[in-house]
Amino acid sequence: MASLTTRSKVLEQTPLNLMERLYLPSIFKGMAITFSHIFKKKATISYPEEQRPFSPVFRGLHVLNRDEDGRENCTACGLCAVSCPAEAITMEAAERQPNEEHLYREEKYAAKYEINMLRCIFCGLCEEACPKDAIYLSETFAPSNFTRKGFIYSKDQLLIPDPNTEKEKYQVAKGLREVHKKNKK
Amino acid sequence: MGQLQGKCLIIQQKLKSSMTILQIDFFYFLEKLLLIGGVITFSLVIAMYTTYAERKVAAVLQDRLGPNRAGPFGLLQPLADGLKLFFKEEIIPLTSNKLLFVIGPALAMITAMLTSAVIPWGSTVNIFGRNVSLQIADVNIGILYVFGVVSLGVYGIMIGGWSSNNKFSLIAAVRGASQIISYELAMGLSLIALLMMTGSLSLKTIVEQQMSGGWGGFLGWNVLYQPLGFLIFLICVFAECNRTPFDLPEAENELNFGYHQEYSSMKLGFYLFAEYINMFISSAIVSTLFFGGYDIPFVNEATLAHTLGGNVVALLGVAALLAKIVFFLFFFMWVRWTIPRFRYDQLMDLGWKKLIPLALANMLITAIVILWLNK
Predict the structure, then answer these.
(1) What is the model's pTM?
(2) In chain A, which among 126-165 make CB contacts under 8 A with chain B?
(3) All structural domains of chain A
(4) From A37, A41, A46, residue closest to B62, measured CB to CB
(5) Nearest chain A Cα distance for residue B81, angstroms
(6) In chain B, where the domains are located
(7) Across the interface, do B60 and A46 touch by the CB < 8 Å criterion?
């Protein structure tokens, strides 16, 4: 009969000798191995206190971006919603009024912008689709809430803090992305 | 008048003498009661922290951190666990035998605690001129008593498993019972060799004999004369305590937790707790029988008592016994997280075909050597 594989090896199985049949030597060997693990480095990361370093391409919760003057980038073009494979993004557009130039960068803006974080698969396609650099995925992750409704993030939850009035919060929300980008260059 | 006074005096004297008798009894009772309370509290606390230690040791051996959230280093974890068990819903299955279902865990707990009565925790301390022995009862059949009580431990498992009216529990209980009975034989036989050497069943006498050996008692340790007996005894202790590699009665992955599957709340807690108390007491017995009990190795207790005082030395002895116990507790866990569980036929094979003949041979050799030396 032809063998099924050319890589098979015939193993010589000799009967166990006395030392092997006693089992005790191998038990002691095993115990020495477990004992040596006492002194090894622990693999655990104590999560809330310690965190793993992020990859530069980490995709966390979404942030709606502002420009240097603190104006919203989003023009409510709806490309992100179209590109979203999970259909997690909903928005309603509105026209910018003459006295709102300091709030919105373009003539059109998103009056309502919602992302359902339970539907979202954090693929980052919205970020790729956005022509205005308005939406990107931040380093915030593991959101928590008491109700499913609470996971539908509204615009005020998604908007990045104003870079001029709330500088520190803005930097935190911005994350290390810029640093990574600079390092890459 | 004179007669009356005389009568009064006699009554007073009688009262006095009876009072002194009462006084002696009272102090003896108090002393023993305190000792019993102390030993039980102590075993419970140790058992509590053994559960903590088990999780910590398991974690460390597997390169993890272990419980570290409740209190500093997770030291309050056993309290949290106990509290949780108390607050859990108490479920008694409808088809169970209600009385036996409740008796089961109680019996497991009682038999686990009973053994501590004959273990000498230390020599004597002198309190207010009274010599208080740190042993609840120096029974001259100490080891026999231990064996009797340990055999009763089967009932806790058997009754619990049977009264649950669940086939997994029953199978586990039957396994547990046959395992404990099988290993008791080898355990007893391995000890007979030891008893031939010591000539006494009293645990206190055995410890004192070991203390009189050379090198401050170290050369008197029975493990040096009965290494094979010690090995057999140790293996049997693992089996008696239902510890890995012999934890078949509670094999989680085959029997859904075994005989305490139907138990909830503190009744389950009692079963789990009894296992840890059993471990503690077994470690104490192994230390007492083979490792000199409260003997401090390489130190002559009698000369040390001259410089430090008897009480300090006695307490140091207790500490020495505790150190030995802690080592064995660690050993229990160390083995648990190293060796996988035996198959049932392997377990029986090891017990009946290997350990019992070995123990018999050990007994025979010991007997021959003793006869040879005495000739």
Answers:
(1) 0.80
(2) none
(3) 62-184 (3.30.70.3270)
(4) A37
(5) 21
(6) 78-373
(7) no
Q: Which of A33, A35, A42 minimises the CB distance to B63?
A: A42
User: With an 8 Å Cβ cutoff, are A42 and B339 in contact?
Assistant: no
In the numeric block, which tokens belong to residue A130?
A: 């956005």
| Residue B65 contacts A, CB cutoff 8 Å | yes
pLDDT tens sequence across B39-94: 889 888 988 899 899 999 999 999 988 888 888 888 999 899 889 988 988 888 88
Candidates B61, B65, B335; nearest CB to A38 = B61
